[in-house]
């Protein structure tokens, strides 16, 4: 699961920074998904250590009477622009100081390598599979790591257009196992009606609302 909306009035790419919590709308998203998952056979709930992921996972764990676990491998991708504003139309690409970080979109040169994200996310999936073997687990993470591990499993290239990620706020990307093998991948958006339209996958950027905050 990707976490819900974050309170970020200054439009900062917050990345792995501490202190970024769910907004009121984000809490509504978390509650919505907790209701959606209440009938499921969930025996393990684990989240990234960042506040927004922990707060999203808490109502899900509570609904199933479970303690919330934390897995550092579910954390947001590292990014050199963390703590800055960097998004569509904000002029960041015109600043010469940023150019050295943008030379290789295939790695990518501005942050944690895609391959490293695949490795840690697959390890987190395997750990959750073992913790909930025969049942279901919910892992709360962040948009880029979720999209990258899904792309790997579905045998797509890892470099991509960020605007086309199918990983909306509070969405569920489901990996189904038979034994130790992933046999299918699913995707649902239980809180879609709560997501601002400009943040849905494939939406066109809106001036002042198109920043890539890191999620």
TrEMBL record:
GO cellular component: cytoplasm
Protein name (record): Histidine phosphatase family protein
Cited SMART domains: PGAM
InterPro entries named among the record's database cross-references: His_Pase_superF_clade-1, His_PPase_superfam, PGM_Phosphatase
Xref: CDD domains: HP_PGM_like
Species assigned in the record: Streptomyces luteolifulvus
Record-linked Pfam families: His_Phos_1
One term of GO molecular function: phosphatase activity
Domain of life: Bacteria
């Amino acid at each position: 699961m990707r976490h819900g909306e974050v309170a970020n009035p200054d439009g900062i790419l917050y990345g792995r920074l501490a202190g970024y919590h769910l907004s009121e709308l984000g809490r509504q998203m978390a509650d919505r998904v907790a209701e959606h998952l209440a009938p499921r056979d969930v025996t393990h709930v684990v989240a990234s250590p960042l506040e927004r992921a922990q707060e999203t996972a808490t109502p899900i764990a509570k609904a199933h009477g479970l303690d919330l676990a934390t897995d550092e491998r579910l954390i947001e991708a590292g990014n050199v622009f963390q703590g800055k504003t960097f998004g569509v139309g904000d002029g960041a690409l015109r600043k010469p100081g940023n150019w050295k970080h943008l030379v290789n979109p295939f790695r990518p040169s501005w942050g944690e390598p895609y391959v490293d994200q695949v490795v840690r996310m697959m390890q987190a999936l395997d750990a959750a599979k073992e913790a909930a073997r025969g049942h279901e687990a919910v892992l709360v993470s962040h948009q880029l790591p979720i999209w990258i591990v899904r792309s790997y499993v579905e045998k797509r290239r890892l470099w991509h257009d960020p605007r086309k990620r199918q990983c909306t706020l509070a969405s569920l990307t489901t990996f189904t196992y038979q034994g130790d093998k992933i046999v299918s991948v699913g995707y649902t958006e239980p809180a879609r009606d709560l997501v601002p339209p400009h943040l849905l996958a494939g939406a066109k950027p809106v001036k002042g609302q198109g920043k890539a905050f890191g999620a």
